Structures are given as structure tokens and as C-alpha cells.
Description:
This protein is about 55% helix and about 0% strand. By secondary structure, it is an all-alpha fold.
Amino acid sequence: xxxxxxxxxxxxxxxxxxxxxxxxxxxxxxxxxxxxxxxxxxxxxxxxxxxxxxxxxxxxxxxxxxxxxxxxxxxxxxxxx
Length: 81
């Protein structure tokens, strides 16, 4: 399900894009997130670029800040480390 709410920038990103952002945060890099999600690195980069555009973020750090209300709680998330 895609959330589209013009008054809420975080709502402009799709659930998949939010999931990719969360995976990058947990995995620590785009490449590690791609491996974890079973996607190519270019697909992860594509999702991040689309999300940045939709929410008006210039950087991935801004994207994370804007999407923070939609990101899952990192407590208890298992990493491969």
C-alpha cells in the first residue's frame, strides 16, 4: 500500500522505499542492505533516490530525518555482525 499525503512529506514515500531506508540503517551501508534484501545495489540506490525526491531531501541523512516517524524501532533488530 502506498501512502500519499501531500501535507506530510514522510507520507509521500512508499512503504518499500521506507523499508529500504530502514534496511540501510540496520545493515550500515547500501551494499549490505542490498544483500540483506536480495536486491542489486543499483536498485537500493534507485529506491533511495526516489524517496529523497518525493520528500524533498537533498541527502540520505535528511531523508532519514524526514522518514523517522515511519521507520521501525531499531530496538531488538538483529544484525549480521
